[in-house]
Design goal:
Blueprint (H helix, E strand, L loop, with lengths): L1 E5 L5 E4 L16 E12 L6 E11 L3 E8 L5 E4 L10 E13 L2 E11 L8 E11 L5 E7 L7 E12 L9 E11 L5 E11 L4 E4 L3 E3 L5 E2 L7 E13 L5 E13 L4 E12 L4 E5 L6 E6 L11 E4 L2 E5 H4 L4 E10 L2
Parallel strand pairs: 1-20
Antiparallel strand pairs: 1-2, 3-4, 3-11, 5-6, 5-7, 7-8, 8-9, 10-11, 12-13, 12-24, 14-17, 15-16, 15-17, 17-18, 18-19, 20-24, 21-23, 22-23
């Protein structure tokens, strides 16, 4: 089993646990991405529907494509190549997108866009810029927004946005991955408590997971069952896997940890880890408890065997995450397996 540390500030610190371990950093990958540019006309209150038009295409890493969309506040919208022809609508947008890199869970693009006052006069841009950003499959990136000054127009806003997602390898069509996840808490005294969840989905799909909450007494012991403990621990996130040539699986794990107090207030952290493992190999990811305070516990008094980090605060108690859980260890065990 390999061991990885995941920091709450997204630093990627990797440690290998033995010479037979196949874990490594996730790398940029070859392939294509499908890039889309869409214009939407959002209707005013009382109007129905949203008008839209879109264009796009597939790009290889290093390749660029140029796209055009246009629209006005009467509801006329369209899209195509550049220059946009056969229209005299109020605004036109030129969007050039270059695919910089692909990773297991995201696409990196360099985009240069401009808005022109008239689609019939495609010469002098009104506004525009250049930017580099990374998109996950379900994310949209807003390029521009234009609002109507006429309260009588059916369309209130024109919105131009960009999407991008990897083009899946036909060799992996229909392949699904199953993820087995164990959450393990080890107290400073060596006592272990574990919970397990399982999720499955298509390779390349982002799967959501969440463990049932744990409760803690102020002496650090785990509270069994539901109950109403003074402290609760919640851990969840997403996991995504992609098959790699040679049978390995590239995994992107995005986890979050929250510590809550009975009367409100939360603390904790989150982080992302990418690695490559063998099919079915179990990887251990350490979860730091993070810094900060989880809030105020009202109606509680400090017990005789209270852990460090609990202090009187106003009418109740406050818990420092780092001090309270000093010496404890929390980790995720993750195994990804190809199902078919």
């Amino acid at each position: 089993m390999a061991r990885i540390s995941m920091s709450r500030v997204f630093a990627l610190v990797i440690a290998l646990a033995g010479p037979m371990c196949a874990i490594g950093y996730a790398q940029e990958r070859a392939g294509k991405a499908s890039v889309g540019v869409r214009i939407l006309g959002t209707h005013r209150a009382g109007a129905t529907g949203v008008s839209s038009g879109g264009t796009g295409g597939e790009l290889e890493v290093g390749q660029a494509g140029t796209y055009g969309v246009y629209g006005d506040f009467s509801g006329a919208l369209g899209a195509g190549g550049w220059p946009v022809r056969g229209t005299d609508t109020a605004h036109a947008w030129r969007v050039e997108a270059r695919l910089l890199s692909l990773r297991a869970d995201s696409v990196e693009l360099a985009v240069e866009w401009s808005r022109l006052a008239s689609a019939a006069e495609q010469s002098v841009p009104e506004v525009g810029d250049r930017r580099v950003f990374r998109l996950k499959a379900d994310e949209r990136h807003l390029l521009d927004l234009v609002q109507s000054d006429d309260p009588a127009s059916a369309v209130a806003n024109l919105v131009v946005e960009l999407t991008a997602k990897q083009v899946e390898d036909p060799a992996y069509a229909g392949v699904s991955l199953a993820y087995d996840l164990w959450l393990v808490h080890q107290s400073r005294a060596g006592e272990k408590t574990t919970k397990r969840v399982q999720v499955a989905g298509s390779q390349g799909a982002m799967m959501v997971f969440a463990f049932p909450k744990w409760g803690f007494r102020l002496d650090g012991t785990v509270v069994p069952g539901e109950g109403d403990p003074p402290l609760t621990l919640s851990v969840g996130g997403t996991v995504l896997g992609r098959l790699r040539p040679g049978g390995g699986i590239e995994v992107v794990l995005d986890g979050s940890l929250q510590l809550g107090c009975r009367s409100g207030g939360i603390g904790g952290g989150s982080g992302t880890k990418s690695y490559v493992a063998r099919d079915g190999e179990t990887v251990e990811v350490e979860l730091p408890f993070g810094s900060g305070y989880c809030g105020t516990i009202t109606g509680e008094s400090i017990p005789p065997n209270v852990r460090p980090g609990v202090s009187v605060f106003g009418a109740g108690l406050r818990v420092s995450n780092r001090e309270f859980f000093e010496g404890d260890r929390l980790s995720l065990l993750v195994a990804a397996r190809r199902q078919r």
